[in-house]
Design a protein that fits this description.
mainly beta, single chain, 7-stranded antiparallel β-sheet, about 0% helix
Length: about 100
């Protein structure tokens, strides 16, 4: 099965997963120009970010632990050099 190429997101870039699923992220840029995810797309499914629970920073990458409108928790990784986003981790609601 061949997957369609992902569409660019709010940042103008998309990430291709090993299984062919594209990810797009809609961001809010604050007064300092730092991007913060407000919603993201996994394939054709849009998830709105209810809350940014935590964040980590490195010189060229940022991670955001977010709770989405489906109740699940996601860790989104942003590569600032390429502008690409990907899903670093996932936890379904109700799991510890």
């Amino acid at each position: 099965m061949t997957a369609a190429a992902p569409s660019p997101g709010a940042s103008g870039r998309a990430t291709r997963y090993r299984d062919g699923m594209g990810m797009r992220v809609e961001c809010y840029s604050g007064y300092r120009g730092e991007q913060e995810p407000r919603a993201f797309w996994l394939g054709e499914q849009r998830r709105e970010v209810r809350e940014v629970v935590d964040r980590w920073f490195a010189p060229d990458r940022r991670w955001f632990k977010v709770e989405a409108d489906d109740g699940d928790t996601y860790i989104l990784r942003h590569d600032e050099t390429s502008g690409d986003w990907d899903l670093a981790a996932y936890r379904a609601a109700g799991r510890t």
